[in-house]
Write a structure and sequence with these properties.
299 residues, alpha+beta, Immunoglobulin-like, four-stranded antiparallel beta sheet, 6 helices, 16 strands, 26% helix, globular
Length: 299
């Protein structure tokens, strides 16, 4: 049994069962005759994760508040791969570094004397106005959950496991700090470092052909929502689905979300769960006809 419901291998199994397209061989990828490919279903899992994250960021953004140190290289500070939004940026002395527009950049001859406490965003970096800054700055930010996947290791050794080339990102450090559950040897670990060769450093020992799942970075109480949401998205988007999800299916998921939010302490003494959901929109069009005196809608 999985330690984390939110590891991608377990989520893939849940989605396949809900779509009536399950076998261990299909989840493992040794059988590709199913109605849905693992690549398609993993896309739906990550879309579901993004949708839940967008909801939670509107209600409990503090769950994603974190900090790190980043080192400048010629005044350019590379952002971590889980970066979502800047909360506070401070220099090596602890003074705030303020955002500014690129139109306010000083001319080239003035860059050496420009402020090291002013920056602008450029792609996945923050750039300080003063030239040649190589100090260590502190960044407070809202993280975002990185994409997760399940797969079969191509190699392993003491303190390392090589992730599946079919799904793992070809980006150094992408999975740093993420949880990984080894399904084959029933162990849980944390990826302390990751290279562009898809080698993940772990505390344990990896083996070739180990099946694993990367663990979602959403708060654990919301892990059980990912698989069901992904199954609804897959059924809605694919012609291979036996049945399209109904309004009742979407509403049941909404109700489960509301229950988890209440259990998580969101909405208590504030507003009804139904009102909380309608603030950020459901997964369906309510529609229906109100029957006076009956207290419900018909569709």
């Amino acid at each position: 049994m999985a330690t984390y419901t939110g590891n991608a291998y377990e989520l893939l199994s849940i989605v396949r069962r809900q779509l009536n397209d399950y076998s261990a061989a299909l989840v493992n990828g040794t059988d590709t005759s199913g109605a849905f490919s693992n690549a398609f279903l993993l896309d739906q899992i990550n879309d579901a994760q993004r949708e839940i994250y967008a909801i939670l960021m509107r209600i409990i953004p503090e769950e994603f508040l974190t900090n790190t140190t980043i080192v400048g290289s010629s005044s350019v500070f590379s952002l971590p791969w889980d970066f979502g939004k800047v909360v506070e940026f401070r220099d090596s002395d602890g003074y705030p570094v303020y955002p500014a527009k690129t139109r306010n950049l000083p001319i080239n001859s003035q860059l050496s004397g420009a402020s090291k406490n002013t920056y602008y965003r450029k792609g996945q970096t923050l750039v300080v106005f003063r030239s040649n800054v190589s100090d260590t700055y502190k960044l407070w930010y809202y993280s975002k959950p990185r994409e997760i996947h399940a797969g079969k290791a191509s190699a392993g050794a003491a303190t390392s496991i090589t992730l599946d080339a079919s799904y793992a990102k070809l980006i150094a450090d992408y999975y740093n700090g993420m949880g990984i559950e080894n399904v084959t040897d029933d162990s849980v670990d944390t990826i302390s470092d990751y290279t562009a060769a898809r080698v993940a450093t772990i505390a344990g020992t990896g083996e070739a052909d180990d099946y694993y799942g990367i663990v979602s970075e959403l708060p654990e109480p919301f892990h059980n929502l990912i698989g069901t949401r992904a199954a609804l998205l897959a059924a809605q988007r694919s012609h291979a689905a036996e049945m399209k999800p109904t309004i009742v299916d979407w509403r049941n998921w909404d109700n489960t979300l509301n229950d988890v939010l209440l259990a998580f302490g969101i909405g208590e003494d504030q507003q009804r769960p139904e009102d909380l959901w309608t603030e950020y929109g459901g997964g369906y069009d309510e529609g229906g006809i109100d029957i006076p005196g009956q207290g419900y809608l018909i569709y």
